[in-house]
Structures are given as C-alpha cells and as structure tokens.
Amino acid sequence: MARPILLAIIMLLCAVAPASADEAHPQPPDNIRPELLKGVGFDMHLGRQLPADLNFKDDKGRDVRLSDYFNEGKPVILSMNYFECPTLCPIVLDGVLVGLQDLEGLDVNKDFTVVSVSVDHEETPKIAAASKENYTRRYTREGLDEGWHFLTGSRASIDALAKAVGVRFTYDAKHDQWVHPSGITMLTPEGKVKAYLLGVTFNPRDLKLGLVEAASGKIGSVVDQAMLFCFQYDPQTGKYGPFALGMVRLGGIVTLLAMGTFMITAWRREARQSRDDSPGEVN
C-alpha cells in the first residue's frame, strides 16, 4: 500500500500547494514600452538546440566550448547578463543563488550545472572570476565552485548564443549599460531549450520542476517526478502552475493502484484462509 498512499499524499499536496509568491506577468507589448526597452525581452524558442561549437573563456581564463557543459548528462541553468552590471544583473544572480540555496533534494554540480554568460564582450575572465567568488563565498552548500561557470566571449559568440536562446538585449550608450531581460533558461543535458523562468527571484519549486523535466526524470525523487502531473510549465508567466488535468490523471492512477492493491490483498487473505480451513492429511 506504500505507493498508493505516497501518490495520494502527492495529490493532496498538489491540491493545496500555493502558487508562487512572485508570479510573473506576460511581457508588455512593444508599443507601450519605453523606447530603449522595445528591443529587449525573451523569444520563447522551446525545443531549440543551442549551437555547441561556440567558443568562450571560463572564469579561470581557459578556452571552453558551449558543448563542454552539455556532455555530462546533466540539465543546465543558463543566465545571460553581465558581471559589472550596476542594476539588474546582481538582483537576478542573487535570485539564482537564493533559489539554489533553498533547493531541496538536488545539488549543483552533482545533479545539474549552472552557466552564466556575459553579454558584454569587453568583460574579461578576471571580472568573471571576481563575480563568481562573490557567489561562491555566500553559498553555504557544496558544489557551487565546480558547478557554476561564469563565461566571457567575443561579440560573435555572445550574439549567436543569444539569438539561439531568444534573449534580446541592447546597449544604452547614454548610461554605458547593457539592457537585458530578467530570467533564466532551463536546458536539457543535450543543450535544448526546455523552459524559461522569468523574473528576478526563482521559486525553488519551479527550479526543481524545471530541472527534473529538463532531465526527463533522470534526477529527483519519485515525488518530484509525480509533481509534474500536478504542475505544468506556462510560457506566458514563465512559471509552473497547477495543472487540473494532471491532477485528474494522477487521481485515476491513485484509484487504480489502490483498487489493485486491495484486490490482491483480499485474494491473498482468502487463499490463506482457505488453506487454514482445509482438513489435514490423515496417515
């Protein structure tokens, strides 16, 4: 009876699970945006394969290719911002850090990889290393130093990656800043776009569901995988929301398992009782 009971508990949790406290809203249309922001946003390229042959420098100054992070059999969280950003980027990266800190059951480096790519082609590995040290120092769990990579690259590599992912950004010459959207991209172990989580904070539940789904259930517990029956990714909000049909399906599975378990238990009890009631052999 353990599995039906477990699934029943999951159903109950799905029914009462609160929505994310920081629900994102669809991006406003360009005609009501400030002029500078009209070219900024995410284009949802779900299912797109990222170009594996793009060249970058990691935070240790080594030459790397994008494919280096897609050959480990682990899903990848990708962020595109820049490391000396005075405004939005630290807030987004702080949101990633807090989300990873509160993520239960999955560990960076062991279960998944994080890659942050600077959109500023003038930033150097030294700048990337300083930014990484800031987050490594504040992270209280293990694995971040090996599992979170800060990359810099040429204008051509950055633009090719951004185009494939669907990240649109621009340069504000007046304030000497790069203007970019806030959010992260969930990638499969093969480097395909699975989901976008929008905003500056990232609910650990959404992070976990995104990673488990991107990994096709190869990471996480049976509870994590069953939760995907109850929550479905919504590209409009960039979040995982309650999925009514999934709950109905899960309810049907729970009912069938419970009925099957009951019938097997009753049959075994009846067979045992029949054996006990049978007359013994006479020598």
Structure description:
The chain has 283 residues and is an alpha+beta fold. The chain is 39% helix and 18% strand. The protein has helices at 2-16, 88-101, 125-138, 144-147, 155-165, 204-214, 222-227, 244-277; strands spanning 41-42, 55-57, 63-65, 76-81, 113-118, 148-151, 167-168, 170-172, 177-179, 183-187, 193-198, 231-234, 239-242. The chain has a 5-stranded mixed beta sheet, with helices on both faces. A hairpin with a 4-residue loop joins strand 8 (170-172) and strand 9 (177-179). Helix 1 packs antiparallel against helix 8 (244-277). The longest helix has 34 residues, at 244-277. Mean pLDDT is 81; it is low at 3-13, 15-26 and 244-250.
Q: Would you count the extended β strands for me?
A: 13
Low-confidence runs: 3-13, 15-26, 244-250
Instruction: Name the structural class.
Output: alpha+beta
Helix fraction by DSSP (H/I, runs of at least 4): 25-40%
The main β sheet shows up as: 5 strands, mixed
Cα-based radius of gyration, to the nearest Å: 24 Å
Q: Report the mean per-residue pLDDT as an integer.
A: 81
Continuous helix count: 8
Order of helices and strands: HEEEEHEHHEHEEEEEHHEEH
Strand order of the largest sheet: 6-5-4-10-11
Strand content: 15-25%
How far is the first residue's CA from the last residue's CA?
Answer: 42 Å
Morphology: elongated
List the helices and strands and how they pair.
Layout: H1 2-16, E1 41-42, E2 55-57, E3 63-65, E4 76-81, H2 88-101, E5 113-118, H3 125-138, H4 144-147, E6 148-151, H5 155-165, E7 167-168, E8 170-172, E9 177-179, E10 183-187, E11 193-198, H6 204-214, H7 222-227, E12 231-234, E13 239-242, H8 244-277
Parallel strand pairs: 4-5, 5-6
Antiparallel strand pairs: 1-7, 2-3, 4-10, 8-9, 10-11, 12-13
